[in-house]
Design brief:
It is a single chain. The protein is built from 12 helices and 12 strands. With 406 residues, the protein is of the alpha/beta class. Helix 3 (99-109) links the parallel strand 4 (73-76) and strand 5. Helix 4 (128-139) crosses helix 5.
Amino acid sequence: MKSIELFAGAGGLAMGISLAGFESLAITEWDRWACDTIRENQKRGYPLVKDWPLREGDVREFDWLSIPEEIDLLAGGPPCQPFSMGGKHKAYGDERDMFPPTTEIVRELKPKSFILENVKGLARSRFANYYQYILLRLEFPEVTIRHGETWTNHLSRLQKEKTSGALHGSGLTYNVVSTLVNAADYGIPQKRERVFIVGFRSDLGIDWSFPRPTHSFDALLYSQWISREYWNRHGISKSKQSDMPERFKNRIMNLSDMLFPLEEKPWRTVRDALLDLPDPRDGSARGFYNHNFQNGARTYKGHTGSPLDLPAKTLKAGDHGVPGGENTMISENGSVRYFSVRESARIQTFPDGYVFHGSWTEAMRQLGNAVPVALARRVAASVAECLAETGIRKIKAGNAKLRNAA
């Protein structure tokens, strides 16, 4: 199956898609540092990325119709700054809003499916109308905006198309599903909430829903405070275990009364993610790429670092360098230090052999903007499965027609 990646960044979403079995026809990214990261790993011959057809530049400047093959999947994470909690909240008025160009590329390429990812802020009530506008443009990509038309007037036209049903069954339309996802629920050692928008071309007749969570907070609490399997696995004696969190005691008591084990696996924690990684201040850390100690970490109100025995807080890129207390961890002695680039890559489920290009600040910005590789793989694999099943059904139907004709 063939794919195209927009706004690739350092390659997290694209790597997950490659792991799900897609072959990329184009990987596009405008940021030089992120492209340098991909190029650096291509030079090193890193298997997942060595054959990626990387295109550095603005997605609006490429001739997408020059791609001759049918596209099975178009994927990308349009820049999140227009909708980020820490941004300027301009949405459509922000020149970095790449959702309109993305819908135009969907219209041109007519991919069988698409996966788009963005920050939780996109789904806030502040952007409710614009969020609906994005979803309707993706559902009806051929209902294009007219010259001089405002996005609100375009939204009204799209709403009429939706309610009239005039385009359903004719023209290019997509069945679109949007979901707010916590990455920790899928085995990512990070509480990272993101919006996923997934669509399938309507003519394919695919019924799809977002993959069910595989991990849970309750399962983590159970493994820590009831079965104690978590502490035993990490070789931590009872005297060195952290105290039971007061705010979770009632929840833990309820779990202790359960007669059946939880179906989900425990959330993965910072300690889980960094299990075999030496402290960056240790001499043995030199055997790992991008695993240097960064001085100057501090905490302040609302930025208190990530505890070892919970998933990390959301890694952030920051507009002007790395946010002081956001990308830090709380050590066992209570001190705070920055995550190294390699530790952050572990938290974003990048493989250890993948190298990040640029300074510590630049590499952390790339990681803060990335999609966790393992989460991207999970979503892309579910899309690939549906596309493959649809292809098999068509082949069987074609064979049946041939047999009947004979």
